[in-house]
Amino acid sequence: MFAIPAGDFTLALKPLQYLPDESGEKILDWLKVDLHAATRHIDVRVQWEMMWDEVNQLRELIDELYQAIRDGAERKTVSYDSREGILRLDMQIVDPRLGSITLDYVICPDNAQGTKVIGSTVIDQTYLPAMANGLDALSRFAG
Fold first, then answer.
1. Are 3 and 116 in contact (CB under 8 A)?
2. What is the per-residue DSSP string for 4-60?
3. By CB count within 10 A, which of 12, 69, 112, 139 is most buried?
4. Which Pfam families has this protein been placed in (predicted)?
């Protein structure tokens, strides 16, 4: 399971079902997940189908950010937008010495039609390996 337990904000993606594409091409496969996001005042849960490739895309962005911190990059931003418009994550290095990262998030539980949970929190580089491992687990669930 992928999770970001960051103080007043928690985001978790739990795999529910693997949906292979009829073409047999892995890149087109889908993964049904339970998305759970919570802030101090809002709790959102939605089932969502994300493409297998999206899991790997987010994994690559986390690797890219982690490497930038290790390389001492002053500023680096990575952004993830789900194809279905359910989840957006922007992560920016704010202090490479401390490995501090601003995490901006937008969660649209009804396919970007109305309600949005928008916020920001600060995490540090120690979150990134666990996030990457969680995405690896999602990827393995998808075959």
1. no
2. EEETTEEEEEEEEEEE--TT--GGG-EEEEEEEEE-SS-EEEEEEEEEHHHHHHHHH
3. 69
4. WapI
Give the model confidence (pLDDT) of 118-143 as tens digits. 999 999 999 999 999 999 999 888 66
| 79 SS3 class | strand
What average pLDDT does this structure show over 65-76?
90
Distance between CA atoms of 94 and 124, rounded to whole angstroms? 10
Q: Is 97 helix (H, G, I), strand (E, B) or coil?
A: coil
The number of residues in the chain equals 143
Which residues does residue 78 pair with via DSSP β-bridges, in sequence order?
Answer: 91
Are 135 and 62 in contact, with CB atoms under 8 Å apart? yes
Helix (H, G, I), strand (E, B) or coil at 141: helix
Domains within the chain, CATH numbers bracketed: 2-139 (2.30.31)
Q: Report the 10 Å Cβ neighbour count for 89.
A: 20
Residues 31/15, Cβ–Cβ less than 8 Å: yes
CA 107 from centre of chain: 11
